[in-house]
């Protein structure tokens, strides 16, 4: 009798322990307003539906290095990780991310379009599930630019019309492209030119014309802060950050929707998860990247949903009550002149050009 | 009588020779001491020494090429890289066999990333070719040479094979060469092209600026420590809290606060303009350059200088200075001949602490350093977390460690490490 009781208790404990571990998953993201938008749009509805508790970890900025370290240690503690597309490609190359089959692992659009077609070209890597389209673009102080506010990106390089400091990201990517475009290179030729040493020198020379007037940023929050302080008259940052400066904080700042560089952010599932955890991660992904969920996220942050079918469903901002569609980088009004980050190019050239860029910066 | 004449060894009470018995008891005591510290020793070894060694080992480890392409590496031995001609069919066949296995294990893209550090374009070449090679049957589909060149023209480029051959060694000096702005080439070590040289400059800048920061910490900390040690208890306790308060504040908060203070629309510039010392259109540039880094880091590291100095100064007996003065020494002589020499051990301890901490800093220089105020650690952080070139990061780290040890040794020779006190 006693034996049975103990066995039962042990069984019950094991069941509770098993259930507890089955009910939790760790999702890694960027923190701040972005994580909050995911919490509202994805995590909360998913927890309600499935009973899984979701733990947040704001480690996306170091996700690539940490995942590699976890993988080498043989103990991956993350279930789903939010990374930019370039990092997803790197993780996929390193064998650190699970390959995704869009037909079986992602939900089709409500009208039956397959996920592969719905995401289209945005599936830039076998391991990457796109979530949002964001753009890196310029914001400017409306009170400091004089009577003719800038209308194209080359204003950044025009010190005569717009004297003052500008901020650029402390890396080669994006800046090199803008420099070439403003140095007369046709948009379609930018990456061909940039692949040659002469083209790289040309871009650096163009950047050199404004080097003394640039504040270089490394965190996305820098430019909005510098704009708000009046430290710079224009600067590049993510469009969502500018949205919050303009619409939420009501600063005298406006956005330049020209030659904005599209980039993608999305999910990967780490390679080497146990079967049970992988199944749970896939279940979450299936839910969180369906058409409605992606459209829901745009209620909380001004990034465009990665599915074509989500665009018509984008509604109003949850707190401000303004229409979000005109603030999406993918909105036709904003996307007249855009530039898609060339992942293949930068995967190859990043090490080389970045080294040159840093050496140039230090000069 | 017989005892006095005995010529054998001295015996212990139990009859064993005294020497042996003594040695045994000493050994037992040593073992017991070892057993007592064993947990700590083991902990330090497992969690500190081994990880560091294994991280440092990455700076030379390069097994990936020969592990991913074992057959190709053997074939490459027979190929003369200087001939200027493409390798023969046997090598291409070996390569296809290796790649089929590698693609299956998803190792080929890792190798591509590794080789891309050396030659731009390798990453996409391996990724794209992998997709196609997957469909080739190494037994039936030969010959492979033209097929591969059709898949990607890079395989028809002599340089591709030269790079693979150059980096096929399992232990490489390549990362160390990269770390000192050189590169491993088929012709031996060569300097990097001029527009990519940056690391030596950063090493120099890191050392130079760390010295300046240490120097300015000494200048600022000395009077504060003197006050701390000599004021009445109440006042010095208050002062101590002021010294420690920033210590408990987050590093990022303190660094960001300096940004608010120093930027062109910041507190200092605004005040100077308001007072009329500086024209509105000629505001001082005191952040996003070396000056900003020096100010912010001096402030952040100051407590590490004050605390050892204070604890040493506290032990200096006041009657020495009183004696000197009573014998007619001026204030300056008293300070310089009597007080200062006794406070040197504190300066030494503080300097070592501050200098070593400064050399490894990267968050503060990243935020306030602009382009001219960043340190070598910023590049290490970049290679660890962004480019994933851990080999280069490890090589940079190893060099930094060696430089610090070397400086420590110099310090020991010149000042003497016995002359350092923490209180």
Question: Can you give me a brief rundown of this structure?
Answer:
The complex is a heterodimer of chains A (363) and B (423). Helices cover 42% and strands 17% of the residues of chain A. Chain A has helices at residues 2-22, 32-50, 63-73, 85-93, 102-105, 115-119, 175-182, 190-194, 197-208, 222-229, 239-248, 275-288, 291-297, 343-362; strands at residues 24-28, 53-57, 80-84, 129-141, 166-169, 214-217, 234-238, 253-268, 304-305, 338-340.
Q: What does the radius of gyration of chain A come to?
A: 23 Å
Beta-strand segment tally of chain A: 10
Tally of structural domains of chain A = 2
Calculate the terminal CA-CA distance of chain A, rounded to whole Å. Answer: 82 Å
Distance between the termini of chain B: 59 Å
Q: Structural class of the secondary structure composition of chain B?
A: mainly alpha
Main β sheet profile of chain A: 10 strands, mixed
Runs of chain A in which pLDDT lies below 50 for 5 or more consecutive residues are: 10-21
Biggest sheet character of chain B:
2 strands, antiparallel
| Helicity of chain A, as a percent range | 40-55%
Oligomeric state of this protein: heterodimer
- The CATH top-level class label of the largest domain in chain B: Mainly Alpha
Q: Give the CATH H-level superfamily of the largest domain in chain A.
A: Periplasmic binding protein-like II
Give the percentage of residues in beta strands of chain B.
under 5%
Order of the strands making up the biggest sheet of chain B: 1-2
Largest interface: A-B, 36 and 39 residues
CATH topology of the largest domain in chain B, by name, is MetI-like fold
If classified by CATH, what would the architecture of the largest domain in chain B be?
Orthogonal Bundle
**Number of helical stretches of at least 4 residues of chain A:** 14
Quote the beta fraction of chain A.
15-25%
Rough outline of chain A: globular
């Amino acid at each position: 009798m006693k034996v049975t009781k103990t066995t039962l208790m042990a069984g019950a404990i094991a069941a509770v322990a098993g259930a507890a571990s089955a009910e939790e998953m760790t999702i890694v993201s960027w923190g701040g307003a972005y994580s909050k938008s995911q919490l509202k749009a994805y995590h909360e509805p998913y927890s309600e539906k499935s009973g899984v508790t979701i733990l947040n970890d704001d480690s996306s900025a170091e996700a690539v290095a940490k995942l590699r370290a976890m993988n080498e240690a043989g103990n991956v503690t993350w279930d789903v990780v939010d990374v930019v597309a370039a990092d997803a490609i790197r993780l996929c190359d390193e064998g650190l991310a699970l390959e995704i089959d869009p037909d079986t692992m992602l939900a089709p659009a409500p009208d039956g379009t397959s996920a592969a077609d719905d995401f289209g070209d945005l599936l830039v890597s076998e391991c990457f599930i796109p979530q949002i389209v964001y753009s890196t673009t310029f914001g400017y102080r409306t009170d400091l630019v004089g009577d003719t506010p800038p209308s194209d990106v080359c204003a950044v390089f025009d010190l005569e019309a717009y004297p003052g400091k500008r901020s650029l990201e402390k890396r080669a990517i994006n800046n090199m492209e803008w420099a070439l475009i403003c140095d007369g290179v046709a948009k379609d030729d930018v990456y061909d030119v940039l692949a040659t040493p002469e083209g790289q020198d040309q871009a650096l020379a163009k950047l050199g014309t404004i080097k003394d007037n640039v504040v270089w940023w490394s965190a996305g929050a820098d430019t909005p802060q510098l704009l708000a302080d009046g430290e710079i008259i224009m600067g590049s940052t993510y469009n969502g950050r500018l949205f919050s400066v303009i619409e939420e904080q009501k600063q005298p700042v406006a956005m330049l929707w020209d030659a904005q560089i599209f980039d993608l952010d999305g999910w990967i599932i780490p390679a080497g998860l146990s079967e049970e955890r992988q199944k749970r991660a896939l279940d979450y992904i299936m839910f969180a990247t369906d058409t409605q969920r992606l459209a829901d996220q745009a209620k909380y942050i001004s990034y465009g949903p990665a599915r074509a079918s989500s665009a018509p469903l984008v509604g109003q901002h949850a707190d401000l009550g303004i229409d979000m569609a005109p603030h999406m980088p993918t909105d036709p009004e904003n996307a007249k002149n855009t530039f898609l980050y060339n992942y293949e190019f930068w995967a190859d050239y990043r090490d080389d050009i970045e080294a040159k860029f840093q050496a140039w910066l230090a000069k | 009588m017989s005892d006095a004449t005995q010529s054998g060894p001295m015996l212990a009470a139990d009859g064993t020779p005294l020497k042996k018995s003594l040695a045994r008891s000493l050994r037992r005591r040593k073992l017991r001491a070892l057993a007592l510290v064993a947990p700590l020793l083991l902990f330090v070894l497992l969690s500190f020494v081994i990880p560091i060694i294994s991280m440092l080992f990455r700076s030379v480890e390069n097994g990936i090429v020969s592990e991913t392409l074992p057959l190709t590496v053997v074939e490459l031995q027979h190929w003369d890289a200087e001939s200027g001609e493409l390798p023969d069919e046997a090598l291409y066949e070996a390569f296809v066999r290796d790649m089929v296995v590698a693609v299956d294990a998803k190792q080929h893209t890792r190798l591509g990333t590794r080789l891309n550090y050396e030659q731009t374009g390798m990453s996409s070449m391996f990724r794209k070719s992998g997709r196609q090679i997957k469909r080739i049957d190494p037994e039936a589909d030969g010959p492979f040479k033209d097929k591969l060149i059709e898949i990607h023209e890079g395989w028809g480029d002599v340089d591709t094979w030269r790079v693979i051959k150059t980096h096929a060694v399992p232990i490489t000096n390549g990362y160390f060469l990269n770390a000192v702005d050189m590169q491993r080439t088929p012709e031996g070590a060569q300097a990097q092209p001029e527009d990519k040289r940056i690391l030596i400059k950063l090493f120099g800048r890191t050392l130079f600026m760390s010295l300046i920061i240490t120097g300015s910490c000494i200048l600022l900390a000395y009077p504060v420590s003197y006050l701390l040690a000599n004021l009445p208890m109440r006042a010095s306790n208050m002062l101590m809290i002021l010294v420690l308060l920033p210590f408990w504040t987050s590093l990022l908060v303190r660094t960001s606060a300096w940004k608010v203070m120093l930027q062109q629309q910041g507190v200092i510039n605004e005040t100077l303009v308001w007072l009329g010392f500086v024209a509105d259109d000629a505001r001082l540039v005191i952040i996003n350059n070396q000056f900003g880094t020096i100010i912010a880091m001096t402030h952040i590291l100051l407590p590490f200088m004050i605390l050892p100095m204070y604890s040493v100064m506290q032990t200096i007996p006041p009657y020495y200075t009183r004696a000197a003065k009573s014998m007619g020494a001026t204030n300056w002589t008293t300070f310089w001949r009597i007080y200062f020499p006794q406070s040197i051990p504190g300066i030494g301890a503080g300097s070592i602490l501050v200098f070593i901490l400064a050399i490894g800093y990267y968050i503060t220089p990243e935020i306030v350093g602009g382009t001219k105020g960043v340190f070598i650690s910023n590049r290490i952080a970049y290679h660890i977390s962004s480019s994933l070139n851990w080999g280069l990061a490890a090589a940079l780290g190893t060099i930094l460690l060696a430089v610090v040890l070397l400086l420590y040794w110099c310090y020991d020779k010149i000042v003497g490490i016995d002359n350092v006190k923490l209180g």
